[in-house]
Specification:
The strands form 2 sheets. Strands 8-9-10-7-11-12-13-14 form an 8-stranded mixed beta sheet, covered by helices on one side. Strands 3-2-1-4-5-6 form a 6-stranded parallel beta sheet, with helices on both faces. The radius of gyration is 23 Å and the shape is elongated. With 352 residues, it is an alpha/beta fold. It starts with 5 loop residues before the first strand and ends in a 7-residue tail after the last helix. It folds into 2 domains: 119 residues, NAD(P)-binding Rossmann-like Domain (Rossmann fold, 3-Layer(aba) Sandwich); 184 residues, Dihydrodipicolinate Reductase, domain 2, CATH 3.30.360.10. The chain contains 10 helices and 14 strands.
Length: 352
């Protein structure tokens, strides 16, 4: 039986549309790029030459086509909502880049539009499939760390930025640009529902008016505390993940991790003592630690390629078999609601 080929149109041939989506799709035999849109003539010429795709300067010309199975919205962030609404209204399944929206109400509008059109709305949150995140989930799910008390996530580095993604008017800033990656992961670990939010945002090394330093705490009854940092002024990043549990913990980055834990049944028996300890001693014991480690497999070492491959493999099953989406609009709505609350708590002045 021949493999069904998904015919794709991509709106936008910038870093995301070309370097992520087109880069993967041109090598995936289950998909075929048949049309692209970009306002820059050189990018259109490149798409025609390299991809053999029709190239348009105006998105409306692409949306008029009736031979597309999927439209990828890889435009600048402030165009995600209006262009996705246009594509759905034109009768297309849509995969939209992150951030899906600026406000939770806009996500509701998009979901309603997809339902009216009877079309698929998917969001490109490929970091759900990051090898290091899958490893964190496996360790937590195993239960060896006990009850998870806190999870610290840091997407930090040092750098200056001066492009459109530093401007509020374009839905720029670290929280809407980088934030959807760690936030999607964090909220999977937190669970459903809106967490209590405490956030601080600052402008450090940016040339625009949006934040490039974020500290975000999420908490809720019966949930682990999530401590998330996204900063462009961290010259010495220490880790990507740290997990605190009642029986151990985990630490590591995107390529290596280690964790240790003990089995309470094999630990020394203890009970509360109210009297002074003999000899003024401090509570001290030797726990039977078990230590383990993980290194990213060679097949997953190119994380960008791996995440795109995994995302598009799941999306293919949704488009051809009706399999449920792994990353749903409801998941993303929770993320956008958190981002919206952070901005409410930290209103930054805009450039004149």
């Amino acid at each position: 039986m021949a493999t069904r080929v998904i015919r794709v149109g991509i709106i936008g041939q910038g870093r995301s549309g070309y370097d992520i989506h087109a880069r993967h799709l041109r090598t995936d035999r289950r998909y075929k790029i048949v049309a692209v849109v970009d306002p820059l003539a050189d990018r259109r010429a490149q798409a025609e030459a390299e991809l053999g795709a029709a190239a348009y300067a105006d998105r409306r010309d692409l949306l008029k086509r009736d031979d597309l199975d999927l439209v990828v919205n890889a435009t600048p962030s402030h165009l995600h909502v209006p262009y996705t609404l246009e594509a759905l209204a034109a009768g297309h399944n849509v995969l939209c880049e992150k951030p899906l929206a600026r406000r939770a109400a806009e996500v509701d509008e998009l979901v309603a539009a997809a339902k009216r059109a009877g079309k698929l709305l998917a969001i490109f949150q490929q970091s759900r499939f990051a090898p290091y995140f899958q490893q964190v989930r496996r360790v937590i799910a195993s239960g060896v760390l006990g009850r998870i008390v806190m999870i610290k996530i840091a997407f930090n580095g040092f750098g200056r930025r001066w492009d459109w993604q530093t401007l509020q008017e374009y839905n720029g800033g670290s929280l809407l640009n980088t934030g959807p990656h760690p936030l999607d992961q964090a909220l999977q670990l937190f669970g459903p529902g809106m967490p209590k939010i405490t956030s601080l945002m600052d402008r450090a090394n940016t040339f625009g008016d949006a934040e490039d330093h974020v500290k975000l705490l999420m908490s809720g009854e019966g949930r682990p505390t999530i401590d998330l940092e996204i900063s462009s002024c961290c010259a010495y990043p220490l880790y990507t993940y740290q997990v605190y549990g009642t029986c151990g913990g985990l630490t590591g980055g995107t390529t290596e991790m280690k964790w240790k834990y003990f089995n309470p049944a094999k630990a020394p028996k203890r009970q509360l003592i109210r009297e002074p300890l003999p000899g003024r001693q401090y509570c001290s014991e030797q726990l039977p630690w078990v230590e383990k480690s993980w290194t990213v497999p060679k097949s997953q070492a190119n994380s960008f390629a791996y995440m795109s491959r995994e995302f598009y493999s799941h999306l293919y099953r949704t488009l051809t078999e009706g399999a449920p989406l792994v990353i749903t609009p409801e998941h993303v709505r929770q993320q956008i609601a958190v981002i919206e609350e952070c901005h409410r708590q930290n209103p930054l002045p805009r450039l004149a």
